[in-house]
Amino acid sequence: MAILLKRYFGGTNQFGGNGLFINHLLKTMRKLIPFLIVLFILIPKQNQAQDSGAAIAGAVGALAAIGAGVAAVEQMKERAELTATEWLLANNPDITSFSLKTIDFDGKKLKDMSSTSVITFKIQEFVPTDKPELDGKKQVLLGFTSHGWINEYGIDFNKIKWFLIDEPEWTNMMVSYVKVASGAANTSEVESTVKNGRIVNKGVRLKNKMTIPFYQLSGDMYVVTDYSHEMKFIYNEKSLGIFLKDTGDLVQIKRGSLIELHEFFFEE
User: Fold this and answer.
1) Which of 11, 58, 90, 250 is the 20 to 30 Å CA partner of 242?
2) Cβ atoms 167, 138 nearer than 8 A
3) Within a 13 Å sphere around the CA of 217, how many CA atoms are in the beta-carbon half?
4) Domain span at 71
5) Residue at 32 is within a domain
6) Nearest to 119 by CA among 151, 173, 156, 71
7) CB under 8 Å to 57, separation ≥6 — which residues?
8) Could you tell me the CA-to-CA distances from 180 to 83, 172, 175, 230 in Å, in that order?
9) Distance (Å, rounded) from C-alpha 64 to C-alpha 191?
10) Phi, psi values for residue 2, rounded to 5°
11) Is residue 12 situated within a structural domain?
């Protein structure tokens, strides 16, 4: 018994080694120490990985939502262009070859489109041939929307009123708009400036000179002119407002769209 206790609990045995228990304990500790170190390192990293995993999952979910939103807007754009094409074919059978493109859905979010009051389309005719050039008559199709034109089912095109506008009509509209926005009175001078200049945020520029400056108004100030039996034009500092007399709707063409449409007609 004494020999056994000595062998297990220390001292020098007949083989010259430490006690078996101490040897076993030391060997076990030597094996456990690397494991404990690895475990100490991995536990916080695992927690961090879980947090990172949650963040990545959230980011993927957000990207999926964005992708779904982009896809929805693109689908709406295609549907809008199809409906505009159908309207054009049904109401203008003399137009037999043309390009039609909307500018309002580009770079827009779904929530932005729900507040859009005018969908604008650029239309240009061409002569059918192999690889034709767009060099024919230019027109703009304006689709004025009403409240609720976008709902959970998509676009309700019954809530859109269409106007097809050629270059002379657009010129008349811009002359009227510039006059109400600036107080300019000479129609022929305004028309010449509109045709040869550029409509910008603060007025009409001609040869890099601000020839017709617009009124500087606050956001709740409006100036009104009676354009036709169908429309009144309303100017404030940010947009061209159009009041549709038969529906009683006040819609807005944003300044950026206005500038792009004007350049479409008059820039080569």
Assistant:
1) 90
2) yes
3) 20
4) 64-266
5) no
6) 156
7) none
8) 33, 12, 9, 17
9) 50
10) -60, -40
11) no
Instruction: Select, from the ranges 56-70, 120-134, 236-250, the one with the highest average predicted confidence (pLDDT).
Output: 120-134
Question: What value, to the nearest 5°, has the Cα angle with vertex 216 and ends 214 and 222?
Answer: 90
How many structural domains are present in the chain? 1
Measured CA distances, 92 to 185, 187, 243 (Å): 35, 31, 25
Beta bridge partners of 87: none
Decide if 30 is inside a domain. no
Residues 73-130: tens digit of each pLDDT: 677 788 888 889 999 999 999 999 999 998 766 544 545 444 557 888 999 999 999 9
Look up residue 160 and give its two tokens.
């859109």
Phi-psi region of 95 (alpha: psi -120 to 50; beta: other; left: phi over 0): beta
Q: What is the total residue count of the chain?
A: 268
Convert the pLDDT of each residue in 217-236 to its tens digit: 887 899 999 999 999 999 98
Beta-bridged to residue 118, according to DSSP, are: 144
Q: What is the DSSP string of the chain?
A: -HHHHHHHHSS--TTS---HHHHHHHHHHHHHHHHHHHHHHHHHHHHHHHHHHHHHHHHHHHHHHHHHHHHHHHHHHHHHHHHHHHHHHHH-TT--SEEEEESTTTT--HHHHHT--EEEEEEEE---SSS----S-EEEEEEEE-TTSEETTEE-GGGEEEEEEEHHHHHHHHHHHHHHHH----HHHHHHHHHHSEEETTEEEETTEEEEEPP---TT--EEEE-SSSEEEEE-SSEEEEEETTTTEEEEEEHHHHHHHHHHHH--
16 lies in a domain? no
User: Are 162 and 141 spatial neighbours (Cβ–Cβ below 8 Å)?
Assistant: yes
